[in-house]
Write a structure and sequence with these properties.
Helix content: 25-40%
CATH superfamily: Ribonuclease H-like superfamily/Ribonuclease H
Number of domains: 1
Oligomer: single chain
CATH architecture: 2-Layer Sandwich
Structural class: alpha/beta
C-alpha cells in the first residue's frame, strides 16, 4: 500500500450553525489518520497541521470517504493551496460512480464488514464543546479504521456491499488500484 494515508475529520461546528453547506465556515476539531507506511493510527488537532500537511504532500495517495466534498475543503481552510490536487481516492465518489447514488459509510461497513461506525458526527461536535477531546479522537479514529478496512476489502475483492431498501444485499463494483502518477519535484509545503 506504499505510502498511502487514510483520514477523516471532525468539526467544531455544523452546517446548520453556518447557514448551509459552507465548508469554508467549518472549523476543524480533530483529524484522524492511518499511515500504511508505519501501520499507525494518530489523531491530530489544528495546532498539529503544519506537521501533518507535509506528510499528506509526500503520500502516494490520500484515502477518505466523502473527502473530496467535505474533509479536504475543510482542511483547505488551514492550508496554503488546494489539498484536492494531491493524489487521492474518495471511496464515496467511487461508490457513486459505480451505482449512481451515494451511501452512508455505516451502510457500506455494516454490509461489507459486519461492523459499523461508533456514533455520528453531531455527537463529536457536542463532545468537543464539552471538552471531551479524547472522545472525539477515539470516534474519529474508529471512522478511520472502518474506512481503512472498507478500502482494503474493496482493493482485494473489487467490490463492496450494501443492503438496498428491500433489505437485499447488493454489490458495488469498485477499482481501488493505484493509478501511477509522476512524482512531484516541488516541495508543496508553504509556510503556515
Amino acid at each position: 500500500m506504499l505510502n498511502e494515508i487514510v483520514f477523516d475529520i471532525e468539526t467544531q461546528n455544523t452546517f446548520d450553525e453556518v447557514g448551509g453547506y459552507f465548508t469554508d465556515k467549518l472549523k476543524l476539531s480533530v483529524i484522524g489518520v492511518y499511515f500504511f507506511a508505519t501501520d499507525e493510527y494518530k489523531a491530530f488537532e489544528q495546532a498539529d497541521l503544519p506537521t501533518l500537511f507535509p506528510l499528506f504532500e509526500k503520500s502516494t495517495r490520500l484515502i477518505g470517504f466523502n473527502s473530496i466534498s467535505f474533509d479536504l475543503p475543510v482542511l483547505n481552510n488551514y492550508y496554503m493551496g488546494d489539498l484536492r490536487g494531491l493524489p487521492q481516492l474518495d471511496i464515496l465518489k467511487e461508490v457513486e460512480k459505480s451505482i449512481g447514488f451515494r451511501l452512508k459509510l455505516d451502510s457500506i461497513a455494516q454490509a461489507t464488514l459486519g461492523m459499523g461506525k461508533s456514533g455520528h458526527g453531531l455527537q463529536a461536535v457536542q463532545w468537543w464543546r464539552e471538552g471531551k477531546v479524547q472522545a472525539v479522537k477515539d470516534y474519529c479514529l474508529q471512522d478511520v479504521k472502518v474506512t481503512k478496512e472498507i478500502y482494503e476489502f474493496g482493493l482485494k475483492n473489487g467490490y463492496l456491499l450494501y443492503d438496498d431498501r428491500a433489505g437485499e444485499r447488493q454489490v458495488i463494483e469498485v477499482d481501488f488500484r493505484v493509478v501511477a502518477t509522476p512524482p512531484s519535484a516541488v516541495n508543496l509545503t508553504l509556510g503556515l
